[in-house]
From TrEMBL, chain A:
Belongs to the STT3 family. Its EC number is 2.4.99.18. Pathway: Protein modification; protein glycosylation. It catalyses: a di-trans,poly-cis-dolichyl diphosphooligosaccharide + L-asparaginyl-[protein] = N(4)-(oligosaccharide-(1->4)-N-acetyl-beta-D-glucosaminyl-(1->4)-N-acetyl-beta-D-glucosaminyl)-L-asparaginyl-[protein] + a di-trans,poly-cis-dolichyl diphosphate + H(+). The chain crosses the membrane at residues 21-43, 90-110, 122-142, 157-173, 185-210, 216-244, 251-271, 283-301, 313-339, 375-394, 401-419, 425-445, 473-491. This is dolichyl-diphosphooligosaccharide--protein glycotransferase. One of its GO terms (cellular component) is endomembrane system. GO terms for biological process: post-translational protein modification; protein N-linked glycosylation via asparagine. It comes from Pichia kluyveri (Yeast). Residues 538-597 form the STT3/PglB/AglB core domain. Residues 29-431 form the Oligosaccharyl transferase STT3 N-terminal domain.
Automatic annotation (TrEMBL), chain B:
This is Dolichyl-diphosphooligosaccharide--protein glycosyltransferase subunit OST2. InterPro entries: DAD/Ost2. GO terms for biological process: protein N-linked glycosylation. It comes from Pichia kluyveri. It is a multi-pass membrane protein.
């Protein structure tokens, strides 16, 4: 009998039934967590459609399509001549293929199972699917950390809580909503899985688990450049443990196995290639690898020699090794065997570095330092549970807890430096937060303890005890209710943030009509579709690099620069073409081979992420290469204002970007003064009508003026310059003012080739 | 066979180490009492400690066939690695990935074997050996793939 009543009337349940029940409960928790994780990421699909978001995902999507339509080897050898015209990009060798391969494998698998799912849907849903796996790996990670501690022995509460936290934490959702098909979508899963196997292998000292760690590390390397975080976290963990005198052979077996296998595996990725042995980013892992060899060697002597002898021996041994290592390092850097630190690395330590030296890194909004408020916004109340969780780890100080502490410290630092690294902080905040809440639950909500006490006190029952019991109960209830309120509030906050802040595809914009009904602004796709349908297939479109991937992915046209910002000079060239006057710009554009120019203009709609707001970055980047032709100061008025109305400086008014943005802007407002709704400045109607363009002709302007496309005019047959012709026409036009009246509003020819 | 060997090693290591250490400890205490300034004895001490380590190492080797086997393999890997490295410096590292995979095979296998060696006194040497084979297979699978890849 599995369930029975014993003589005293107590219910007796068989252990196997309890175990089954426990499994059932945990499984149902896992399933509901998965549903919550996926569900909260689907806002954008429901509100808009199943579409790829933002910028980078469009490239990943395009690459995935290439992989699915070609073979894997063709993918690795892919030379893309449709980007970075005329240079092209060795795409196969300069990307992290993990993401594309993952979705290609899933797609093939589904096809084998006779479930032909469109590749677009797979890529859109990949991030939510992996978020459930992240919850699972976080659960395992936390369980591995807590199961060895005294406080949480065999207690799954923190583990389950951490899984629940990570499932809906906004800091992670920001990079993993449906449609945000980016490397980070799978990288966080792999990060947590790698860490889980790592602490497991340290705990057991097992070569097998270390090999599994390196396998996941390999997957991580193939998926995201952030793998360097793991490459430095694990050696740091080992290093700290050695400094604490925790060395035993388990550290050696796990670390050396991971390092040897992981490094060799990471070199299989074409983009990484030899950097694990050449770049300084990886040197700490190599250093610790060497250190461990010495330590295990010394450890052998420790078992044989007396402490005093060993001490002297170590001093002699240590000085020799240290000096040798230093000399080697100095020579290696001097002779260029080791590559110097990269700019992205410097900007991790010195937040001002990028601003001063590399405008292209500083210009990316996600590389900005994190404002304080976004910590609360992205992590909610977990951010103040976080320090207490770290404190609990300090109380415990097992090898695993030390790992959590190191991760917390590094994660917090990096999250403070760059807003996008909030992503790597989020998992550890969830883990530490769950430790805090788990501890609270253990103290105030342990029913087992309560029942035990009740049983013991049953015999000697008196009034005094009853009162203390009551106050005890009230205080407990108070804390539990507060805690439950916060948990509830957390869920609410997360859902609100996910729905309002992180679920916009940014390719399609949502707004509201005056009557409150939802309106969808689909200008981007309208324009890209126009390009796709109305231009020659080999025409080259010049736009700022932000839109390179989208033009490639949606319009399928050749671009000059894109979000893979590998060539700063090329970007500066495009920036120069945008920021100098028409005559000079024409020279640049003819040399580049531009056919069309695409510009984003938000002045009519009030879309603040438009090109005029990014214009300063274009100027800065091109000033870095041509300081005598482009000067940032000359775009500001004497008062230091960034003006675009009549008071704007001449270089501003003459720049191609300015002209492209406001060309015919006045016509939209008939005879009223046009207002730029982004920069909140009013242009007089007379001035606005005077803005003219000679070297370009307008071919397309989207419904809300968000995207404007111009075509570079053919060179004049008689060899006159286009600006000259324009000037001449204007002066004739000025003589006969009547002709201006007759001029009808010229709209672009919109006959679509469908 | 293997299990017996390990037990033998265990017994020897437990018995022998204190036997070596005890007289040694005495000798150090006597030296420190006799010679107060220890500038010359410092060097002597060093060579002495290396000597004792060597003696102990030889004893360990003599007692276990398995240790002999592992250490021979380690020596082979080390020599092979050194030869490859020397060749790389003298003859050039032109197919760099080929050199790396050859050298990596030596280093990786060396490290794995050392990991096996320290584990061979463990409770479950069979499991350790199984894991060792798994990791080695993985290592060489990767290396074979890497060997002829075009850079």
């Amino acid at each position: 009998m599995a369930v029975s009543f014993d003589k005293e009337g107590y219910l007796r349940v068989d252990a196997s039934v309890l175990a089954t029940l426990r499994l059932l409960v945990i499984t149902s928790i896992a399933i509901s967590l998965s549903i919550a994780a996926i569900g909260s990421r689907l806002f954008s699909v429901i509100r808009f459609e199943s579409i790829i978001h933002e910028f980078d995902p469009w490239f990943n999507f395009r690459a995935t399509k290439y992989l699915v339509n070609h073979t894997f080897y063709k993918f690795l050898n892919w030379f893309d001549d449709k980007t970075w015209y005329p240079l092209g990009r060795i795409t196969g060798g300069t990307l992290y293929p993990g993401l594309m391969v993952t979705s290609a494998v899933i797609s093939n698998l589904l096809n084998k199972l006779s479930l032909p799912v469109d590749i677009r849907n797979i890529t859109v849903m990949l991030a939510p699917a992996f978020s459930t796996l992240t919850a699972l790996s976080t659960y395992l990670f936390t369980y591995e950390v807590t199961s060895s501690t005294k406080t949480f022995k065999n207690n799954k509460t923190p583990a389950l809580l951490s899984a629940a936290f990570i499932a809906i934490v906004p800091g992670y959702i920001s990079r993993s909503v449906a449609g945000s098909y980016d490397n980070e979508a799978i990288a966080i899963t792999l990060l947590m899985t790698t860490f889980y196997f790592w602490i497991k292998s340290v705990k057991l000292g097992s070569i097998f688990y270390a090999s599994i760690t390196s396998l996941f590390y390999f997957y991580m390397v193939s998926a995201w450049g952030g793998y360097v975080f793991i490459t430095n976290m694990i050696p740091l963990h080992i290093f700290v443990l050695i400094l604490m005198g925790r060395f035993d052979y388990k550290l050696y077996t796990s670390y050396c196995t991971w390092y040897a296998l992981g490094t060799l595996m990471s070199m299989q990725i074409p983009f990484v290639r030899f950097s694990p042995i050449k770049s300084n980013d990886h040197i700490s892992s190599f250093g610790v690898f060497g250190l461990l060899q010495l330590v295990i060697f010394a450890n052998y002597f420790k078992t044989i020699l007396s402490p005093k002898l060993f001490n002297n021996f170590m001093i002699a041994f240590g000085t020799i090794i240290l000096s040798l290592g230093l000399i080697f390092l100095i020579f290696a850097t001097k002779f260029g065997w080791i590559a110097p630190w990269t700019g992205r690395f410097y900007s991790l330590w010195d937040t001002n570095y990028a601003k001063v030296h590399i405008p292209i890194i500083a210009s990316v909004s996600e590389h900005q330092p994190t404002p304080w408020s976004s910590f609360y916004f992205d992590l909610n109340y977990l951010i103040w549970c976080f320090p207490f969780g770290v404190y609990l780890c300090f109380n415990d100080l097992s090898n695993e807890s030390i790992f959590v502490i190191i991760y917390s410290v590094l994660g917090s630092y990096f999250a403070g430096v760059m807003i996008r690294l909030m992503l790597t902080l989020a998992p550890i905040v969830c883990v530490c937060g769950s430790l805090t809440i788990g501890k609270l639950i253990q103290i105030y909500l342990d029913i087992k303890l309560y029942l035990k006490e009740k049983n013991e006190k049953k015999e000697d029952y008196n009034n005094k005890e009853n009162i203390t019991n009551l106050s005890n109960l009230i205080s407990k209830l108070l804390i539990i209710l507060t805690m439950i309120f916060y948990l509830f509030f957390y869920v609410q906050h997360c859902i609100w943030v996910n729905s309002n802040a992180y679920s916009s595809p940014s390719v399609v914009l949502a707004s509201k009509n005056r009557d409150g009904s939802a309106a969808i602004i689909d200008d981007f796709r309208e324009a890209y579709y126009w390009l796709r349908m109305n231009t020659e297939e080999d025409s080259k479109v010049m736009a700022w690099w932000d839109y390179g991937y989208q033009i490639g992915g949606m319009a399928d046209r050749t671009t000059f620069v894109d979000n893979n910002t590998w060539n700063n000079t090329h970007i500066a060239t495009v920036g120069k073409a945008m920021s100098v006057n028409e005559t000079n710009s024409e020279i640049v554009m003819r040399k580049l081979g531009v056919d069309y120019v695409l510009v984003i203009f938000g002045g009519l709609l009030g879309y603040s992420g438009d090109d005029l707001n990014k214009f300063l970055w274009m100027i800065r980047i091109s000033e870095g290469i041509w300081p005598e032709e482009v000067n940032e100061r000359s775009f500001f008025t004497d008062k230091g204002e960034y003006r675009i109305d009549e008071l704007a400086t001449d270089s501003m008014k003459d720049s191609l970007m300015y002209k492209m943005s406001y060309y015919k802007f006045g016509e939209m407002f008939q005879n009223r003064d046009p207002v730029d709704r982004v920069r909140q400045q009013r242009l007089s109607s007379k001035y606005a009508n005077e803005i003219h363009l000679d070297i370009l002709e307008e071919v397309f302007t989207s419904e809300n003026w968000l995207v404007r496309i111009y075509k570079l005019k053919e060179e004049d047959n008689f060899g006159r310059s286009l600006v000259e012709i324009g000037d001449k026409e204007r002066s004739e036009e000025g003589k006969s003012k009547r002709s201006k009246r007759l001029q009808t509003k010229k709209r672009p020819n919109l006959d679509l080739r469908v | 066979m293997a299990r017996k060997d390990v037990k033998g090693v265990k017994k020897v290591s437990v018995k022998e180490i204190p036997a070596v250490e005890k007289p040694f400890n005495k000798s150090t205490t006597t030296t420190t009492t006799t010679t107060t300034s220890s500038k010359i004895s410092w060097y002597e001490e060093l060579s002495k400690s290396i000597d004792t380590a060597l003696i102990q190492y030889k004893k360990d080797l003599a007692s276990s066939r398995r240790l002999r086997l592992i250490d021979t393999f380690l020596a082979f890997l080390m020599i092979s690695g050194i030869v490859q490295f020397a060749f790389c410096i003298l003859g050039g590292s032109n197919p760099f990935n080929t050199f790396l995979s050859g050298f990596g095979a030596c280093v990786g296998q060396f490290v794995l074997t050392v990991a096996l060696r320290v584990q061979s006194f463990d409770k479950n040497p069979e499991i350790a050996f199984g894991e060792y084979i798994f990791a080695s297979l993985l290592l060489h699978f990767v290396l074979v793939h890497f060997m002829n890849q075009l850079a």
